[in-house]
Amino acid sequence: MKQATTTTRIVPDEKGRFGAFGGKFVPETLMNALTELEAAFEEATQDPAFCGELNHLLSEYAGRPTPLTYAERLTEELGGARIYLKREDLNHTGAHKLNNALGQGLLAKRMGKTSIIAETGAGQHGVASATVAAKLGLSCKVFMGEEDIRRQSLNVFRMKLLGAEVIPAVSGSRTLKDATNEAIRYWVSNVEETFYVIGSVVGPHPYPYIVREFQKIIGEETRAQILKMLGRLPDEVIACVGGGSNAIGMFYPFISDEAVALRGVEAAGQGVDTDKHAATLSLGRPGVIHGSLTYLLQDEHGQVQEAHSISAGLDYPGVGPEHAYLKDSGRVTYTSVTDAEALEAVQLLCRTEGIIPALESAHAIAEAIKRAPQMSKEEILVICLSGRGDKDVLTIQDALEQTAEGGEQ
Amino acid sequence: MTAAVNRIDRLFEDRSRKRFIPFITVGDPTLEATYQLAQAMVEAGADLIELGIPYSDPLADGPTIQRASQRALANNISIIDALQLVKRLRDSGMEASLVLFSYFNPVLQYGVERFFADLATYGADGVVIPDLPIEENGPVVEAAKKNGIHVISLVAPTSESRIQTIGEQATGFLYCVSSLGVTGARASLREDLSDFLSRVKASTKVPTAVGFGISTPEQVKAVAPHTDGVIVGSAIVLEIERHEEQLRDPAQSEEAVAKIKTFVQQLASALQ
């Protein structure tokens, strides 16, 4: 990351608010830890030694910068805008998650913490955290919903192999929301020695801000790469949104480039007209989840509803508060695609480009399949390919077999 | 109605007497059981009752109160049920202080202004919102003041330099979190608890009450000299859970309530 100079950020403000959203809605026990974290982050990012060490790890260990790939055959297939893929799938551990885990891991070490904890949905952030813990010599506990442990058994084994302890969350829907609850409860109990590595731009301030700062390298690289390749900025940038960290990382460096359209894609699950979806920004209302005021899927009494998506990384009933802010300000357009559309997108990208995308990233591809044909051949469309799909192949296989059986009946 | 003195202020006028504060979840296992239990707890020596509104994502609660929340949510309990329970208790002549415990999101969805106006109308005295630190509670405190309701602040062993500010702003009483972590019974209390409690007392004019992890008469006795009140939640909720079937059965509920009353009596009498 670039060494921070004077603070020029507009959001969040000093209270951690992105417009009306964000803030710190957490038990008093955690408030001091959040203040300390914010101070440590500001101090670290102004220290050339910290930035140097992070940059070294990002290039020599993670393999950054990741390529920007021209998707020639996908472009031909869709017959519209020229499509470029930002290859976060080629980042070490197979997704963008490592960018943030490395940053927070280094921060944990700098603050003198010996153990880190993390929550995970699809397992990508858990794997990234376990990886960083191994690399930096920290102990690591990963909280993961029981349902996700079942869906993502390969990632569970990877975390264990990397030396992390995987703790099943058995409450509620037993997915990411509940894993996050359990991680926060553990943190409240062990706050003095534990660093909580949050995996997305969610949670109480300063987390949405810190995670954005560690993920904005995605957009910074993309912007520089496309300028170098084509001498101009893209017309549109698409990224999937669960909590929304790859999207914020991709969008943030383009926010003031007003000619660049930004589209965030949520999971519509079985459809936005059913009760099985994760389209928080489209169908939620403002509420508080995991310490942050943001759009939230909830019932009339404020009870949090369960989100559904074929992608374990997207079925979260909340969303990062900065996305809530960008939606209300109109700077980013948010749409959603269904499980079925995401599955179609997986197959198309495999066939045309030889890339198996993560189910999360397939939502961005699916949106591009709709958008590209509506754009001219001179226009440029960038997709954030946030992760690779190896972890999902069993889920994809099951879903495709079910579709095939359904088709025969 | 704002002219009347808040029952919490009246309760703590005489600080020589320590106050016993039980917590139960509204609608666990039924609304009728909560009504009976509240009456029984006052007879057993409770001076103030904390009534928990169930929430889908109770971040500050351990497994015991999580399960209570789930049992109550299965009965579709919401804020309005808690308010109606308060009214029913008042109509029966109950004069003990009644404080609702709710996470912030249900209050936000109910409407902050409407919530505090209704607390006053239905006869409640205060509210504890465990995920609303002082940085975020401005509009809530304003609405509460307008309606003569106390927003009870929490202070934790990790609050450190925040203790002074929290203590100065506190109204009603100050809820001192006796151990790090979520609610739930614990075998032992922190060794530095009395240091923490004396720092809190020095910071504030309002009375203090200690909670989180206190589950036995011995622990109540140990904490009592350092505080004006003792809060017990999970230990009582666990007793309710043990008698869930009987409490649900009208033929057996009276006996179950009596047993829980005896349990509460043992805790309350350890205070004096």
Automatic annotation (TrEMBL), chain A:
The modification N6-(pyridoxal phosphate)lysine is found at K97. GO terms for cellular component: cytoplasm. Gene3D superfamilies: 3.40.50.1100. It comes from the Bacteria. It holds the Pfam family PALP. Tetramer of two alpha and two beta chains. Belongs to the TrpB family. PANTHER family: TRYPTOPHAN SYNTHASE, TRYPTOPHAN SYNTHASE-RELATED. This is Tryptophan synthase beta chain.
